[in-house]
Design a protein that fits this description.
This protein is α/β, with parallel strands linked by helices. The chain contains 21 helices and twelve strands. Helix 1 (106-119) crosses helix 2 (122-130) and helix 1 crosses helix 21. 27% of the residues are buried.
Length: 519
Amino acid sequence: MCRKTHTATLTPGGLAVDGVEIGAAKIIVMARPSTKMATCPECGAVSGRIHSRYRRRLIDLPAHGRIVEINVETRRFRCVGTGCRRRIFVQRLGDAVALPSARRTMRMDGIVHRLGLALGGRPGHNLASRLAIPVSKDTLLRTVRRRAARPREPLRAVGIDDWAWRKGCQYGTVICDLERRRIVALLPDRAGGTSAAWLRDHPSIEFIARDRGASYGDAASKGAPQAVQIADRWHLFENASASFLDVVRQNMHAIRKSSATDDIDPALLSCAERKRWENFQHRKKTVDAVLRLLEQGTPLKQITRRLNLARQTVRRIARGGGLEVFRSRVSILEPYAETLDALWTGGCRNGAELWRRLRIQGFQGSLRVVAEWATRRRLDESSNPAGRVRKTPSARKIARLMTIERDQVPRDQASIMAKIAHDVPPLLEARDLVDRFHEIMRQQKAADLGPWIVAAIASPLSSFAKGIIADRDAVQAAIIQPWSNGQTEGQITKLKLVKRQMYGRAKIDLLEARVIGAA
């Protein structure tokens, strides 16, 4: 069923269609303004006296893969206003159709603007060519600049941080509206005077989220003394962890001495490690009882009945089964443990070759199981090779294992961490202070910040505590207030993406127009 489409629906409102010519690459629409009168832009008088006519060409939205051109027969009118300086004026098509002297309709100009915002010059031109939109890369950038508009809403909470024009050489400043989650300004440098001047022009600001650098702190104090400064919480966490890492590095000599032994203090283990330690103690008692009866000549059958154990357990202990403190769960390789040990000792270290030899003996498991066993065995030997002192983990790894991964410490490192914590008291003290600081930040316990500072001043974290004292009001606000500079960091990531799309050659006005206009 074919439905007839009114030609008036093909053009913007306010135009009457006289005819349509469809070519191979272009569709031409002949149109004229639907009104017979026009208003003088100088005096506002309405006139119907036509002076002359001329044709105006407008590019409209493409259709069916073809360029659409609207030829509008526009009229000039004589002004009838008494004393008006303008004798002749051109009939305006209206903002819904096209701006004065424009070569594109408003709806087409909106598409060009969005292409420029999203893709920039050359990539936007390439896509526009495929969409049958005749626009050059320079026109795209000119449109973005022309339609750039700064937000006019009053600002209440802002985030301020620096970003790299060229890393290590030139930096700028980005200011983000934390309430509306968008960039509101880009400054050409990160000097305190530039930021203070911008803040002075916005007296409505009540909260400023910033990093812990002195530059933006001074700028906020001078430019917006009425605002509450809020230190960035992520940087506070990162600074606390970096301070603990410094303590670990300062005590590496004592750590190397401590990690050479294997003694374990259960009181220093985490909850998961303590459970594994208790299970080990229970297994050790069982093994000692079985070995004691074996030394007395007691048969395996009687040992099984007397100790109420499975016969396979007693047989494995009698054959010298391994007893690990932090052991892994029993796997399908358990019946082939002796064969694997013999092959490994004999020099066969390839996982695939081990798997092929076990297959001959009836092993039904996959290659991955044997390969993982070989990897674990290789790591165990590299961490404590025979006849050598155990290798001490790096300072960064020790700091990570003692803080963020305490309940997930690998079995070959658990005993080392416990021994280090016992033999090097400054590490244990510093770790407890870092944990307390993290808890203060996460639980918003602002009242505990003062006692923590007193304890930290007399500890290895004294340098970090002095920095907190110097910026105490901002740190206190970071605990209480909901604002954070994380939104600004995310906007900087977006800003870098836009800059790299333009190959890093955008001027600040174009870069600002793109990031603000896209919001």
